[in-house]
Amino acid sequence: MEQIISMINNLDAYVWGWPMIVLLLGTHLIMTGATGGIQRKIGTAIKLSVTKDTEAEGEVSQFGALATALASTIGTGNIIGVGTAIYLGGPGAVLWCWLTGVFGIATKYAESLIAVKYRVKTPDGRMQGGAMYALERGLNMRWLGLIFAFFASFASFGIGCATQVNAIATVCSENLGIPSWIVGGAVAFFTALVIFGGIKSISSVCEKLVPFMALFYVIGCIVILGINIDFLLPALKTIVTLAFQPGAAAGGLTGGGIMLALHYGVARGLFSNESGMGSAPIAAAAAQTRNPVRQALVSATGTFWDTVVVCAMTGLVLVTSIMTNPSIDIGNVSNGGVLTTLAFDQIPYIGPMILVFGIILFAYSTVLGWAYYGERCVEYCFGKNALIPYRVLYVLVAAIAPVVALDLVWTIADILNALMAIPNLIAILLLTSVIVKETKKYINNLDAHSDEQVPVVDRKEN
User: Fold this and answer.
1) Domains plus CATH for the chain?
2) pLDDT 10s digits, 383-427
3) H helices then E strands: how many in the chain?
4) Can you say whether residue 276 is alpha, beta or left, with left for phi > 0 and alpha for psi between -120 and 50 degrees?
5) Predicted confidence (pLDDT) per residue in 57-102, tens digit
6) Which residue of 185, 196, 201, 264 is most buried, as measured by CB atoms within 10 A?
7) Within its chain, how far is the Cα of 166 from the centroid?
8) Can you list the positions of beta strands (E) in 208-319?
9) Helix, strand, coil shares of the chain as percentages rounded to 5?
């Protein structure tokens, strides 16, 4: 078993080496330049995200599609993932995680744009799109689309299900005394109730759940930062300094230099906001939108809320709490989840409550969002008849996830993230001219209707 774990860890280090980091951050920078710094439109994008567009074609509202995407991105990566980044890469990883989000806004915009532009409609009226359709219809590379869909299908069981349910079971067991097997069964039951209803059922639940859970968590973080206010500026200085050089800080915090901080900051940043991974555009393709740019802007707000706001606040909460409470012995911490728990436990009453309920809500919403992503990818590979078996297997994974080793699951999820991101990033880069053309066409006329018809494609048999 130790040899298998060692092989998995070595593979993770390989796929998340410099080539992947350069590809990911390079794409973020290229898309920022190609779109003319689309981040400057974030205010307009936020306004659009809460504006209904009933005249447009699609299955769910723009906000419904965004809520589904946010459900999958605002998950344990925002809480435990940030703790894991600090544990493995030092406080400096928080800066790289945040910068991945800032520049990742452009990549999320770009991948969502091509997802909507190249989306298709099934004979029963369901909208489908994503990197696989962009690769097939935009670049005539269906084989690469199949590779993306294959890895994304498997990734849904890891990043979308196992890691999330495992995290729920851990916090419920440690803080509420609920046996893990009961937690797994309960999550599996409630997941089945929602996902068998399809995208409309999932988006309906997410529209109600996401705003509440995000507001609850952000307010809680603000309260904790208020309590730790004396260490806020020292924490910011520590994060910036240790992002570029090795060293130590108050509370036993240490940084291993730019490579470690960059590695784990970027990896956790992608895990958290999924910019460049190709997942969120699958939900964007189902939205009611007049043109690709309009929905692409809405989708880009997901990265803003997820990483630029929520992950940054989590990082500051963790670093300030550790610096405030020297009783936290970093040397005896076994993983990022334990570090996160210890940090939040230092705040009486409110800290543990925010951690427990934040993880439960964030993780469960992610389970729902990724179930939809997995469905679309499975249908692309194997046809509509594969949907019911996939849903059954997804629910079973949720039931058994609490007994899986968390660190091993996180590592496998990291690997699958990279493997599905590569085909998606290839699609984005090769379709840059299309992204630029569509942006120029609609960015100053967001109410314009696209003159392109969505083709009907039957995926019953593949």
Assistant:
1) 10-436 (1.20.1740)
2) 889 999 999 999 999 998 887 666 677 778 778 888 889 999 999
3) 22, 4
4) left
5) 666 777 777 777 777 677 666 777 788 788 778 888 888 888 888 9
6) 264
7) 17
8) 246-248, 254-256
9) 75, 5, 20
